[in-house]
Structures are given as C-alpha cells and as structure tokens.
Design goal:
370 residues, alpha+beta, Immunoglobulin-like, five-stranded antiparallel beta sheet, 26% helix
Length: 370
C-alpha cells in the first residue's frame, strides 16, 4: 500500500472519529440531564442517543431519588425519569401504544418510590446510612418488576398482557379509571328478536325485528324455511363472525349477505355492489367506515371499539341487470338494505333512516300459504 493511500485512509478514520465525537457531544455528553418527576410522558422526554446493538424502539431511564427537608428534618423519596438516558428511534413519534408502555415503566418506578416513602415515614431515619439498605432493596425489586413487565408484555406487543399489567399497576397506585362513554348507546334502546311463524305444512318463516321502548317494530332479516332447509331464493339475511386481534381495541369481522342473487356472477350485463357501512370509536371520537365489494357476497373488515366488540352497521346490496323487453333495453334493479348488530340491545344509528319504510307488518309476510 502506498504512503498516499495510508494517509488517505488515516484522514478518513480521523474524520469519522471527529464526526462521531461531535455527534456524541451534541446528543448529550456535555448536557446536564433533566430529572422529570413522575407524571405524563411525551416523546420529547426521550432525548438521549440510541444505544447500538439493541432491537428495542425506545428505552426509558428511571430511578428513585431521596431528598431531605431541612425545615421538617425528614427524608422523602420520589421517582424520576432521565431524559438523556431515555431514547427513542426515529419514526416512533406516532406510536402511542409504545409510549404508553414506557409510561407504565415510569409508573412502576413511582409505585416503588411510594413504598420507599412509607418506610421513611414509619422509621424516620436521621442519616442516609439508616435507609440505604432499604433504598437498595426497593431499587432491586423495581428492576425485577420492570423485567417481568417487559417479559410478560413482550415490550408492548402482547396487547392482552399489556392491558392486564396496566390494570395491575393502576390498582397499586390507586388510580380509578374513568367510565368511558359508549357513543354507540343512547337513550332510546331497541331490542332485537326473531319471530318464528309455523304454517304447519313444513314451511316456517323467521323474521328479525327491532322493538323500541314504545313497542314500535322494524323488520329486518328474513329467512323462509321448507322442511328445515332455507329457501335461498326468497331469503334476505346475513351471517357475521367477529374475532379478536393482537391489536388493542381492534376487532376482525367477516360479513356475508344471502339473497336470491347469491349465485349471480358479476359481468358487464350483471352488476353487483355490496357495501358495508359501520361505526368505529376510540376514547375521543366516533366515525363511520365503509367497505365495498363488486363481485363477492362477503366482506372482510377490521373495526376499532374501545368499549368492546359491539358492532353497529348497515349492509346494502345493489343489483343492476341489463335485459330486453318488447325490443327495448331495460335495467332490472334490486336493492337490499339490512341493519347489522351483534348485540341484542342496540341503538343502531342507521335506525333513524331505516325505520321510515321498514315497519314490520305480519300481514305482509313474503311466503304464500298454499
């Protein structure tokens, strides 16, 4: 290797080291840390340099501090978070679940700090050596609890365990959870029920109705059966499956509509559109989402509901068929609207629109009596 090459490599190495050295200083080597007392965290509190060779997206630094009150001549403890030794990777600023996970690390530190305070108040030590062993014990137990928290929750990835730990820590801190308002339930609740009408000739009609507090009724799904088999050519109903996901407050659903056009193949002359409108809600707001299909009777979807897996929606099937009658081009239209609820008691917001022309009348049953 020539002298010129060696000099060039040396300059590159020195420059790299200098750049890294400047970066380290900018990231906090010369800064004094801010010790934030226990409270609500934001990502701005994570201002340290990302540690190499660690797969985590964020880490929080916490501790238990002791202070001495000259006036009262007593010691007290409090939990703190160190902003310089707490860090986050780029791109996690919108990850509220991860920030919540780190918050509960801080909450565990606060819990152990309160236990330390109980010890200080009870024993009233006069010098540091009187409580040093207890402080070390609290810090050790805090570390064990923090490790188990991460292990059980898989660093926030296990949603069910994360929620269990949050409830546990809240209970230890005496935090009372606020009652969440379910925006999908109002005052005028309806009750769903199925009516079964037996004609004693092997034919049965099953009709789903919504009954209000004032005994107003709205008809919805319809299932005619002959000798125990569903008459698919005259049926108008849906099937619904809801399962849990690994994401907090997110549920997975699959809805299928059944009608006389169930086997219709969509093409240029036969057009089919299936729409499913449904409500979602979090702690702060409620909104409507929509899924559509042009060629299937089934729609897969996910929905958020912070108050459980309650689902309220509106299913709408639209059929357009081109035909010729008396040498004239015509379009046969078929529309099927259905309310969708997975709970017996409901106040489906779509009821206000649906009930205008869907009043239930037992005299208008679709199956003719032979």
């Amino acid at each position: 290797m020539s002298i010129y090459s060696k000099i060039k490599i040396g300059i590159i190495l020195i420059s790299t080291v200098l750049i890294l050295f400047v970066h380290l200083f900018e990231r906090g080597f010369y800064r004094k840390p801010i010790f934030k007392k226990w409270g609500k965290l934001t990502w701005a509190d994570f201002d340290g340099m990302v540690k190499p060779f660690i797969q985590s997206s964020a880490r929080i630094s916490f501790d238990i501090h002791i202070k001495y009150n000259e006036e009262n001549r007593e010691y007290s403890s409090y939990s703190v978070q160190n902003n310089i030794f707490s860090w986050k990777r780029k791109g996690v600023e919108n990850d509220t679940l991860l920030l919540r996970h780190e918050q509960y690390h801080f909450n565990i530190a606060e819990y152990q700090s309160r236990l330390m305070n109980d010890y200080l108040k009870k024993n009233q030590p006069e010098v540091v050596s009187d409580f040093q062993k207890e402080l070390e014990k609290r810090q050790e137990l805090m570390g064990i609890m923090q490790q188990k928290y991460d292990r059980d929750t898989n660093h926030s990835r296990n949603v069910q365990q994360q929620e269990k730990w949050e409830n546990k820590i809240d209970s230890l801190l005496g935090v009372k959870k606020k009652n969440r308002k379910d925006r999908l339930l109002r005052d005028s609740l309806y009750t769903k029920q199925w009516l079964s009408i037996d004609y004693s000739n092997g034919r049965i009609e099953e009709v789903e109705i919504y009954v209000s507090k004032n005994n107003d009724t709205i008809s919805n799904q319809f299932k005619p059966l002959k000798n125990g088999e569903i008459d698919t050519l005259k049926s108008e109903f849906y099937s619904l499956k809801i399962t849990e996901t690994s994401k907090k407050n997110i549920h997975k659903g699959q809805i299928t509509i059944y009608s006389k056009y169930n086997k219709l193949k969509a093409d240029k002359r036969n057009r089919k559109t299936l729409e499913f409108h449904y409500w979602e809600q979090n702690i702060d707001s409620i909104w409507m989402s929509t899924k559509k299909s042009k060629n299937s009777n089934t729609i897969d979807f996910e929905f958020e509901n912070v108050n459980g897996n309650r689902l309220q929606g509106f299913l709408y099937l639209s059929i357009e068929r081109d035909t010729v009658r008396d040498n004239e081009d015509m379009i046969i239209l078929f529309n099927l609207p259905l309310l969708v609820d997975n709970k017996v008691r409901t106040d489906n917001i779509f009821l206000e629109v649906f009930k205008k022309d869907s009043k239930f009348n037992p005299d208008n049953l679709k199956l003719e009596i032979e």
